[in-house]
Fold this sequence. Notes:
The chain is α+β, with helices and mostly antiparallel strands. It has helices spanning 16-27, 52-60, 108-119, 164-168, 234-243, 246-251, 296-310, 316-346, 348-360, 362-372, 378-390, and strands at residues 2-12, 32-35, 49-50, 72-73, 75-79, 85-89, 101-103, 123-125, 132-135, 141-144, 148-157, 172-173, 179-187, 195-200, 206-211, 216-224, 262-264, 270-271, 275-276, 279-281. Helix 1 (16-27) packs parallel to helix 7, helix 2 (52-60) packs parallel to helix 7 (296-310) and helix 10 packs antiparallel against helix 11.
Amino acid sequence: MKENDFYDVVILGAGIAGSLCAYQLINKGYKVALIEKNAQPKRKICGEYICPDGVKFLEELGLSDSLVGRRSIMGMKLVSPSGIEVDTFFPKRNSNKYSIGKSIERGLFEKDIISKSIKLGLDFFPNTKIDKLIQDGNGHWTASDGQNTWRGKLLIGADGIQSIVAKTLNLNKKSEHRKIAIHAHLQRNNLLPDLGQMHVLRNGMYVGLNPISNQEINFSLVLDKKFFDNSNGVNTFVRNLIDSYPILKKQIANIEETDHFNVLMPISKKVKSIIGKNAVLMGDAAGFLDPLTGEGMYSAIKMSKLLAEQIDLDNIEQSLSSYQTLKIQFFKNKIQINKIFQLIIKSSIMSNLIGHFLKTHQYFANQLIGLIGNIYTPKTFIQSLFLKFKNKGY
Ligand SMILES: Cc1cc2nc3c(=O)[nH]c(=O)nc-3n(C[C@H](O)[C@H](O)[C@H](O)COP(=O)(O)OP(=O)(O)OC[C@H]3O[C@@H](n4cnc5c(N)ncnc54)[C@H](O)[C@@H]3O)c2cc1C
């Protein structure tokens, strides 16, 4: 077994969570190893939409140039099961700056962050699948792929839904979630404005569309597994579904047998805690609810920032505990909001009623998308509505 250097921090997983965390820890002067099972970061099952507050965080991290050339998303088209279409636009954060989301190409984005980190001293180990983690009496961790070992003071699990770090620390919690995701990059049929799109369909299914380029559209369908179980293959299933929704059909070129769809299950993860002794979880490894409000990458970005700010290797236990507290505080309201939206989309009648209301109340629709895009917290969202009422402009 070949032993590598001793590191301050060993990070498993070079997705958005792991690569951003590595970038910030290297900037803090730590000696960091980032280990990734794939030969290079690659495109994932992901809508590839970063909400406006996620864009703001990346700018604050000095990574604006990693978003240059990526398509800006000015708001969201919301579509109800009966076909009510509402175009919403992200409200301005302050009077002179527009709030925008971004469409990124996963893989390329992470590659860019990793190359910036390597220039600053990161040791990156691609093509390396960690299958064993051992902790010694000093609390130090050794990660092994069967041929090499990496030792470090702190272990960060940024290794996604199937996290080996969460498994080793026995932090996983049973989830009753039965939803699956069907995902593809498809040919774009016509050029709509630069809005992300959320189509609520029957039976609580939904489709997220994200225009990545003039040619390509990112397609994510989420549904209860039981509706897919007896289907005649994924391509036929998606083709029939699209055929029954004219607004989807208008935008997506015919689904061919050669189109490649990925099916992912489960799409949720629950954990009992996000910290262990000298070990911590972040990104999807730390829990994932459902992609309905496009939160996953935003959560990964925010968690990486919280963790990098809190880490103090002379006081690991205390710093990880602060990270956990801040993470819970920051996300608890958003989790409740996501759950409310999940309940609403289960009922087509309710979704259509809300669609109708939003169609006739554009200001409210824009503020709501500001809440979903994390421009507003629930508190500032309510304040903004209250102010509008008070000024009788609503
Ligand atoms: C259908 C769908 C649509 C979505 N759309 C959006 C969206 O539009 N916007 C948004 O913000 N979020 C979206 N999400 C969520 C988002 O994709 C995830 O939250 C995000 O990818 C999490 O990033 P991560 O870095 O935590 O995990 P990942 O991106 O999964 O990265 C984990 C990395 O760890 C590596 N790894 C795993 N095990 C090992 C091991 N043993 N050894 C070494 N390496 C390992 C993997 O190869 C991988 O590269 C969507 C999710 C789904 C399912």
